[in-house]
Every structure is written in structure tokens, then in C-alpha cells.
Design brief:
- By secondary structure, the protein is of the alpha/beta class.
- The chain has two domains: 274 residues, no CATH class; 59 residues, no CATH class.
- The chain is 21% helix and 38% strand.
- The strands form two sheets. Strands 1, 4, 5, 7, 9, 11, 13, 15, 17 and 19 form a ten-stranded mixed beta sheet that branches.
- The longest helix has 17 residues.
- The protein is globular.
Length: 442
């Protein structure tokens, strides 16, 4: 405890400094203090904990990050490279943890669809809570840290039978304007009965200063509701990114979750879904591409707490240079979750003998009438296929980039939104050794 005391003291003092600025009612402030207490007692997770065995947050702990008092100065030109071409979408932009009306585009929302800043939601509704009551369990001290410090984010609410006629592009930007700043951002999507929405969650880092982004996203799914969520992480090379997603799914609801980790010095993403009523269905798809000395860690958990529920999970990692990847996927099938149908696979492609991946798919089954499977592979490129492309005039790096792109692209194409698919494909290709010369294939 003595080792972490100065660190915790810093964040307690930081909370005291910004407490009056935090949005929400007095009840919210009490909830924030309870979360702060839980964070203070637990501290940052460390490698002695099984879920953090392969990921050390020591680089984050060594710094003393502070909340930005306002959004940094980000121009439309600086944001432009992160806007997929031809994407017709509503846009809400959070800069350094604060809503930017200037960069957002929210005109013309259809009836029954609300998109606003999370701070505005907390201020406008006395009963609004910083943590969703439907998702009571949000494991991890950094979720508590977020609940205490959350300054802003996106709040999306679809009334029953509503539909968002265009995707909602939620962009979280670190401006890089100051040294050692942190953004504590919370997004909440409430999709009521028989409603549907597509949300693109985009994380962007500018500048060359170190920063820390801690995200919590909640999805509360009504009966027969559908959410397609696409998360694109493009933090800068000095960025530390920790994100958690929690979905609560009722009868006949469907969540399609796509994640692409491309940036950041260190990125950790926890993706959770709890299926509580029959015929709920969840799909998790993910691609992570650590190059240089990047470290990317994905943990997933699907909790089947009902009969007749379905989950599908596919993750693919591409690792080059000294890149380090971690994947831990858990499927929990509880005692009364009969007729569950679940499948999990994770595959990794190593492009360097210095790259490393730790993969651990898990099944925990307490019901006896289920279909459940999991698998994991780690390999290298097929040298015969590389030779084939080289014999047709493609340089060695280009041949490897093309084959690697083909390995990952099957998951990119599952997004079902062509402008986003093209954007992710180009970003993926540009990360691969030799890929820039063949980016027009994407």
C-alpha cells in the first residue's frame, strides 16, 4: 500500500480540484465519491492479478495525469484525416474529455432519437446517474476511476420503435496540447424496444505528448433492440488507452460489436455482454495490430445468464516488429442457460520473430444442454504464398502485406458500412511493413 499511496493521493487531490466542475446531481456526486473510494482502495490493477497478468500499467502509474479543464483547440483540418470519406453520419465530438459543439454535427435527428453530450444528460435529468442502474456490475478499478472522474461523453437514446436513419459517429480526441493530461469519458447507449442504431466509436490522438484515455461505454438493450457498434482506436504513439464496454441484453436483443485496435503505445480493451433473457444474441469481432513496441490487450466476457441465447466471437491479431498482443476470451454459461449456442475463436499472425502474443480462450459451463466451442491458433505467413506473389513481380514486403491484409480483412468486411470498411482497410494496410505501396488494394 505504501508504494501506491503517493499515486492515489495525487488522484484524490485531482478529484478535489475538479469536483465542483463535474456534472450531475448531489446524488450523482455521492455515487462519484463511492466510486472514488473504491478506486482509492484498489489502485491501478497490476500483473499479480490474473486478468492483468500480461499487461503492466506501470508506464501510466509513473506519471501524474490531470484532467483538462476545457477542450483543446482542435481544427476541422486536424480532424479531417479521421473522417471516413463519403460517410454520411451524425457526429458528436469529445475533445480532451469535453463536448465540442463546433466540431459536432447533430442537426436533423429523427423523431425518437436523442444524441447529446453525457454531461448535458446528467445536468438535465435529476434522476440521471453516472453509472447505469441496469449494469450494476462493472468490474475493474479503472471503471470506478471513470465513474468518479467522468467529465463528458456521448449519450444516445432511442425511444421504442425508433431508428437512427444514419450512423452516429462518436469521436473522442486527445488534442495533445498539454503534457500528461487524462480524459475520463463515459458513453451510454439506451436502445429501447424494437429500436436500432449504428454507432462508430472513434478514438484519435494528436500531437506528441503523453496522455491517458480511460473510457467506459454502456449499452442498455430493450426487447428486440439492435445495436451495431464499431470501435476504431487510433491513439497517438504516446497515448495510453484503457476502455471497457458493458452490454445488458434483454429478450430478442442483438449486439454486433466490431473493434479495431491500430494505435496507442499501450491499449487495453475489456468487452462484456450479459444476456439475461431468451433469444438474446451477441457478436464480438476484433482485429488488433501492434507494431513497433506497441502493446495491445483484449479481454472479453460473454455471460449467458438465460436459456436460448447465442454468442459468436472472432478475434485476429497481426503482430510485427516488437509488437505484443494479449487476448483472453471467456464464455460463461450459467446453470439455467440451457440451449445456449456459443463459439469463440482467436487467431494470431506473427510477422517477426520478436513479436509475441498470449492467447487464452476460456469456457466455463454449468449447464448440460449447450453447444459451445473455442479455439486458438498462432502462426506465420505461408512462405509458398509469399513466393507465388514475388514470382509475379511483387516485392517481398508487399507480398507479405497483401497476405496479411487478406488474413485480417474478412473481419473488416463484417462491419457492413462501406465507408468505414474502406477507412479501416486503408489504416490497416498503412501499418503493415511494405503496405503503403499497396494501400490502393484496400
Amino acid at each position: 500500500m505504501n508504494d501506491i499511496a503517493p499515486l492515489i493521493d495525487h488522484y484524490l487531490a485531482e478529484y478535489a480540484r475538479i469536483e465542483r466542475q463535474l456534472p450531475g446531481s448531489d446524488a450523482n456526486k455521492r455515487a462519484r465519491k463511492a466510486a472514488l473510494k473504491a478506486f482509492g482502495e484498489a489502485g491501478f490493477p497490476d500483473t499479480r492479478q490474473e486478468d492483468w497478468k500480461y499487461t503492466s500499467l506501470r508506464p501510466v502509474e509513473k506519471r501524474r495525469f490531470e484532467i483538462s479543464d476545457e477542450a483543446g483547440d482542435v481544427s476541422e483540418d486536424a480532424l479531417a484525416p479521421f473522417l471516413p470519406a463519403d460517410l454520411d453520419a451524425y457526429r458528436i465530438v469529445i475533445v480532451d474529455g469535453h463536448f465540442s459543439a463546433r466540431l459536432s454535427m447533430l442537426d436533423g435527428l429523427p423523431k425518437g432519437v436523442i444524441v447529446q453530450s453525457f454531461a448535458e444528460y446528467l445536468e438535465s435529468d435529476a434522476e440521471a446517474t453516472v453509472q447505469s442502474e441496469a449494469i450494476a456490475s462493472q468490474p475493474g478499478s479503472l471503471s470506478d476511476m471513470n465513474a468518479a472522474f467522468a467529465t463528458d461523453g456521448a449519450y444516445v437514446h432511442l425511444a421504442a420503435n425508433a431508428a437512427a436513419d444514419k450512423p452516429i459517429h462518436v469521436i473522442t480526441v486527445s488534442s495533445g496540447g498539454h503534457e500528461e493530461r487524462m480524459a475520463q469519458v463515459r458513453h451510454r447507449y439506451v436502445i429501447d424496444a424494437s429500436s436500432q442504431a449504428t454507432v462508430i466509436e472513434h478514438y484519435v490522438g494528436l500531437g506528441d505528448k503523453p496522455y491517458f484515455t480511460n473510457i467506459v461505454t454502456e449499452a442498455v438493450m430493450g426487447q428486440n433492440a439492435q445495436l451495431t457498434r464499431c470501435r476504431v482506436q487510433q491513439e497517438s504513439s504516446r497515448g495510453y488507452h484503457v476502455a471497457s464496454f458493458f452490454a445488458h441484453q434483454t429478450r430478442d436483443s442483438r449486439v454486433l460489436n466490431h473493434g479495431f485496435d491500430l494505435g496507442g503505445r499501450l491499449a487495453r480493451t475489456d468487452t462484456h455482454a450479459r444476456l439475461v433473457d431468451p433469444n438474446a444474441e451477441v457478436h464480438f469481432y476484433g482485429v488488433y495490430v501492434p507494431t513497433g513496441r506497441q502493446h495491445m490487450d483484449n479481454h472479453t466476457c460473454v455471460d449467458h445468464d438465460t436459456e436460448h441465447s447465442v454468442s459468436r466471437e472472432i478475434y485476429k491479431g497481426v503482430l510485427a516488429d516488437y509488437g505484443r498482443g494479449v487476448f483472453n476470451g471467456k464464455i460463461l454459461i450459467r446453470k439455467d442457460a440451457q440451449k445456449t449456442d456459443s463459439d469463440l475463436s482467436c487467431d494470431a499472425l506473427l510477422l517477426s520473430d520478436k513479436a509475441e502474443v498470449d492467447a487464452k480462450p476460456e469456457l466455463e459451463i454449468y449447464a448440460d444442454d449447450v453447444v459451445a466451442a473455442h479455439g486458438s491458433t498462432v502462426g506465420q505467413l505461408d512462405e509458398d504464398a509469399v513466393f507465388y506473389l514475388k514470382s509475379r513481380g511483387v516485392e517481398d514486403d508487399g507480398a507479405r502485406a497483401i497476405l496479411t491484409y487478406s488474413f485480417a480483412n474478412a473481419l473488416v468486411q463484417k462491419v457492413g458500412l462501406e465507408p468505414v470498411e474502406r477507412f479501416v482497410e486503408a489504416a490497416l494496410m498503412s501499418k503493415l511493413p511494405g503496405g503503403e505501396s499497396y494501400a490502393d488494394l484496400a
